[in-house]
């Protein structure tokens, strides 16, 4: 945690009020997100109990599994939820523009869950569904495996920093606000909302006390409270089992109604809280570069949609060695890009990185705007140099490539030297791009004496790493082949995920 992040948490603790950490919202927020609040029995992660799902606060659909340990009822629940989710996904597979490889859907679905546990619950559900057969013994409805594959795609996509197709609401809130509680406590949506927007008439302390009381504010999923399970849920399920065994339709209907009312009381407070959080997030302006990242979501959505239309196989149960290495490199690249975008767009985030020595800002004290060098091909190109005096701690080495939010888009630079000068640091940088095509840099593209300027590392264009073929994998990293595809992206699209298209 950086100095400024720690300071924000301390300030929140002292004032008992959440403190904004960013100037903008760095996640795309759809005008029509699909909210899913999954619920499972405490201690039964693989046994879904219920889910509330809908794309508007007032039209949520409650789905309940009366006996979570019954296989047929679990897959009937998965089919009902799958039809709702697939109808939502298919509604984004209508408007497509462009031709050939550049053809893509103009929008992409967005699923919001209360917290990171909700993402894990959907991952478990996707794994449970995607390999099921639709014919023969133990057949499931056709929508179940399709739903499982799409859930797995969304969960895999959610691992990439900066994406917006599947998001926990708690992550979006903590990305913008700092509270006086721990990171673990921030996963409790009710407790988090108590810091950011306590109910009218209640202090933060009172709202937090209510959030920690399961009778006042049931857990935000994905598990129910053990006290609720023992006191209310288990007896209600036993009554349902008894009525089902006796075949009494009146007793069965009464038991089902009782179960729905019990579960509705547990899940509806979280449902309302998620939509309240969405309203809060809409009040935060969206960062400029968020739209470009969402274009990447639309591209990935289009590719996977086309893959499924061509009867593509389900994702593997686990990645092989090469797939795991590819996934790791892809995630690291995405994280570097996202952190750079946030700092470029947001002065609060930039200040946070400056306090950690990962960026710097200062005043230009020396400038050589007319410097020209001769390349290996005997071309003379402008390479101005400037020296920036900064009071920030600088932990960047020479040859680090830089970008600057203080100068026009496309500005590129590189650190030549970093020298301590008393209580300050002198950083000499060489301008390498963004000056126009002539030998004389365009006006405003080179920093001037006395100008205040900020720099941060450029994640840069990175070519796709070269991995060995599957048959060349060392025996220590090989395993029996499994049906399915790697869970990151289709093989032929892997290289495009690394570099900038331009």
Automatic annotation (TrEMBL):
<feature type="compositionally biased region" description="Acidic residues">
    <location>
        <begin position="493"/>
        <end position="502"/>
    </location>
</feature>
<protein>
    <submittedName>
        <fullName>Uncharacterized protein</fullName>
    </submittedName>
</protein>
<feature type="region of interest" description="Disordered">
    <location>
        <begin position="459"/>
        <end position="502"/>
    </location>
</feature>
């Amino acid at each position: 945690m950086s100095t400024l992040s720690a300071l924000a948490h301390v300030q929140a603790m002292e004032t008992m009020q959440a403190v904004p950490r960013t100037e903008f919202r760095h996640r795309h927020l759809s005008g029509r997100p699909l909210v899913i609040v999954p619920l499972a029995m405490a201690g039964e992660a693989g046994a879904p109990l219920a889910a509330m799902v809908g794309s508007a606060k007032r039209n949520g659909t409650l789905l309940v599994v009366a006996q979570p340990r019954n296989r047929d009822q679990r897959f009937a629940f998965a089919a009902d939820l799958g039809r709702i989710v697939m109808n939502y996904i298919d509604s984004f597979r209508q408007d497509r523009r462009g031709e050939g490889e550049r053809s893509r859907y103009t929008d992409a679905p967005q699923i919001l869950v209360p917290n990171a546990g909700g993402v894990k619950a959907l991952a478990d559900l996707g794994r449970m569904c995607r390999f099921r057969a639709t014919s023969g013994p133990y057949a499931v409805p056709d929508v179940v495996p399709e739903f499982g594959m799409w859930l797995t795609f969304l969960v895999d996509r959610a691992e990439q920093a900066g994406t917006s197709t599947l998001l926990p609401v708690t992550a979006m809130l903590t990305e913008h606000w700092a509270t006086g509680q721990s990171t673990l406590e921030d996963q409790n949506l009710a407790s988090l909302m108590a810091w950011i927007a306590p109910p009218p008439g209640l202090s933060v302390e009172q709202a937090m006390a209510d959030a920690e009381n399961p009778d006042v504010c049931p857990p935000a999923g994905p598990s129910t409270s053990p006290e609720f399970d023992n006191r209310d849920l288990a007896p209600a399920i036993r009554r349902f089992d008894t009525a089902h065994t006796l075949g009494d339709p009146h007793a069965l209907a009464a038991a089902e109604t009782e179960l729905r009312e019990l579960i509705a009381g547990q899940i509806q407070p979280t449902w309302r809280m998620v939509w309240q959080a969405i309203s809060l997030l809409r009040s935060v302006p969206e960062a400029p570069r968020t739209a470009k990242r969402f274009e990447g979501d639309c591209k990935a959505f289009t590719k996977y949609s086309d893959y499924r239309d061509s009867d593509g196989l389900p994702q593997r149960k686990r990645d092989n060695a090469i797939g795991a290495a590819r996934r790791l490199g892809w995630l690291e690249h995405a994280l570097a890009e996202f952190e750079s975008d946030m700092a470029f767009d947001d002065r609060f985030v930039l200040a946070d990185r400056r306090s950690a020595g990962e960026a710097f800002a200062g005043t230009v004290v020396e400038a050589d705007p007319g410097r020209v060098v001769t390349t290996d091909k005997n071309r003379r190109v402008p390479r101005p140099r400037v020296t920036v005096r900064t009071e920030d701690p600088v932990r960047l080495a020479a040859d680090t490539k830089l970008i600057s939010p203080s100068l026009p888009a496309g500005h590129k630079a590189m650190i030549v030297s970093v020298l301590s000068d008393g209580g300050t640091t002198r950083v000499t940088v060489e301008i390498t791009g963004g000056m126009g095509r002539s030998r004389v840099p365009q006006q405003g593209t080179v920093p001037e004496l006395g100008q205040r300027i900020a720099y941060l590392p450029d994640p840069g264009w990175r070519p796709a790493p070269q991995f060995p073929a599957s048959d060349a994998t060392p025996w220590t990293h090989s395993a029996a082949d499994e049906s399915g595809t790697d869970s990151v992206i289709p093989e032929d699209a892997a290289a495009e995920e690394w570099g900038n298209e331009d």
